[in-house]
Design a protein that fits this description.
single chain; six-stranded antiparallel beta sheet; 14 helices; 39% helix; 24% strand
C-alpha cells in the first residue's frame, strides 16, 4: 500500500511535500495529471502519457494527495481516482463544496457560522434570444443587490475565483452596474452574479489551517497567517501584501473547527485552509498612519523575501534555495516593526474575536513559502499523516 502525489506541475509546495515525505520515511509515488490519457472501458482503466504507462503504478496506490492547481482539474482528479477505488485527500465531496464560494457559504450558514451578508442572483448580465437579440440585465441585477445590501459599498466576486482575481469593489451605483456589465459566464463564474457586503476588516485578514486524520477529532492550528496591507481592500498576498504570524483565541479555533466539520461532513480525512476576517469597524487600537509607518519599515526586508521566492534556481537546487528563503524570512521576522504589527493584529483579533466571519475555504492551499515560515505550519505533515491514517500505517510523532 503506497501513497501518491498528483499534480499538474512541480512547484515549491510539491517539492516541499516530497522533501517532507523523505524526512518521514515515506516513498511518495508521482502521478501526472495534465498531458495524460485516461481510458475507461469494460476491461478496466489506464492512465498513460506519451511513451509512459502509469496504470500499474496507480493500481498499487492506496491514497493520493490531490495537488492539481486548477479547481476544475482537481475536482475531476478526485472523482476519477475515487472511481478507481483510491482514497483522495481531499475527497471529491470536499472539493465540490470548496470549488464554489456560494456552496461553501451555504454550508457555513446552515451550521450557524457567521458569514458576510451575501447575495446571489442566478442571472447573467447578458443573454441572447434565439433570433440573436441581446438582453441586458445589469440594472435589474444591480437593483436586486442593492435591495438586499443597501446603497453602500458592495463587493462583487467570481464564484470559483482564486487569488483575489476579479474581486471588485463598487462604491457607487454606476460602478456596480459597470462591474456587473463586465461579468460574463466563465470557468470561474459559471452562472449568475455573487456579491457581498463590504466588511470593515481594517488592514488584515486571516488564513487559518484545520485538519482531520482518520479516527481523530478535527484540529485547528494555533497560529494563523495574517495577510496585511493598505494597498487594496483585498489583502491577498498576490497583490503584494505582507504576512504575519498571529496566535488565535480559543473561540476562533473552535469556530474554525466547526467550519471544517461543515465542509468535511462525514469524510474521514481532510486538510483545509479557511479565509476569515473580523468586522473591526472603528474599533482600532492605533491610528492607521502608525500602522502604515511600521509597514513601510518592512518594505525592503519583505522585498528581499520576494526576491528569493522569484529565484528560478529553486527547481535546480531546492535545498540551497530553501535555506536562502528561510534566512530571508527570519531576517524579516526579527525586525521590531514586524513584532509591532504582529502585536497590533493579535490584539485586534482578541478584541474582535466574536465578530469573526468565514468566507472561503481552500482545499489546495499554497504553504511552503509563507504559511510554513510565518505561521509555522508545514502542510505536508498533516497531508502525509492523513494519508497514513487512512491506510493504517503508524503515524510518526
Amino acid at each position: 500500500m503506497s501513497i501518491a502525489i498528483l499534480y499538474e506541475r512541480s512547484e515549491t509546495d510539491e517539492m516541499g511535500i516530497k522533501l517532507t515525505a523523505r524526512e518521514m520515511g515515506i516513498d511518495l509515488v508521482y502521478i501526472p495529471f495534465r498531458k495524460v490519457s485516461i481510458r475507461i472501458d469494460n476491461d478496466g482503466y489506464s492512465i498513460r502519457g506519451k511513451g509512459k504507462d502509469y496504470s500499474s503504478l496507480v493500481k498499487d496506490v492506496s491514497v493520493v494527495l490531490n495537488r492539481a492547481q486548477s479547481k476544475n482539474r482537481r475536482l475531476f482528479a478526485a472523482h476519477i481516482l475515487e472511481a478507481f477505488g483510491k482514497r483522495v485527500i481531499n475527497p471529491s465531496q470536499v472539493e465540490y463544496l470548496c470549488f464554489s464560494k456560494l456552496r461553501t457559504l451555504l454550508h457555513f450558514w446552515k451550521n450557524g457560522i457567521k458569514i458576510p451578508k451575501t447575495v446571489y442572483v442566478p442571472c447573467d448580465s447578458h443573454e441572447y434570444t434565439r433570433d440573436g437579440n441581446e438582453i441586458h440585465n445589469e440594472e435589474d441585477i444591480a437593483d436586486l443587490m442593492q435591495q438586499e445590501l443597501g446603497n453602500e459599498e458592495i463587493v462583487v466576486k467570481p464564484d470559483a475565483g482564486t487569488h483575489g482575481k476579479r474581486v471588485m469593489l463598487a462604491k457607487k451605483r454606476e460602478e456596480l452596474s459597470k462591474i456587473i456589465h463586465e461579468t460574463k459566464p466563465s470557468i470561474t463564474n459559471p452562472i449568475g452574479v455573487l456579491a457581498q457586503e463590504f466588511v470593515q476588516k481594517w488592514f488584515y485578514d486571516l488564513r487559518i489551517v484545520i485538519a482531520k486524520e482518520k479516527g481523530k477529532a478535527p484540529y485547528c492550528y494555533p497560529k494563523a497567517l495574517a495577510r496585511a496591507g493598505f494597498k487594496d481592500f483585498r489583502t491577498n498576498t498576490y497583490l503584494g501584501n505582507m504576512v504575519f504570524g498571529v496566535n488565535l483565541p480559543s473561540y476562533i479555533k473552535e469556530m474554525a473547527i466547526k467550519c471544517g466539520e461543515a465542509i468535511g461532513k462525514n469524510s474521514e480525512v481532510w486538510v483545509l485552509a479557511l479565509d476569515a476576517m473580523l468586522d473591526v469597524g472603528e474599533d482600532k487600537m492605533v491610528d492607521d498612519e502608525y500602522v502604515k509607518s511600521e509597514l513601510e519599515k518592512l518594505v525592503l526586508p519583505f522585498e528581499a523575501v520576494k526576491k528569493v521566492k522569484r529565484d528560478r534556481t529553486k527547481k535546480k537546487d531546492f535545498s540551497t534555495w530553501n535555506a536562502k528563503l528561510e534566512r530571508a524570512f527570519q531576517e524579516y521576522m526579527n525586525l521590531e516593526a514586524y513584532e509591532n504589527v504582529k502585536k497590533i493584529i493579535e490584539e485586534s483579533v482578541e478584541r474582535g474575536r466574536r465578530s469573526i466571519m468565514f468566507h472561503e475555504v481552500n482545499s489546495c492551499p499554497e504553504f511552503w513559502e509563507q504559511t510554513r515560515m510565518i505561521a509555522e505550519i508545514n502542510l505536508a505533515v498533516p497531508l502525509l499523516r492523513c494519508a497514513q491514517s487512512v491506510i493504517g500505517l503508524e503515524v510518526l510523532k
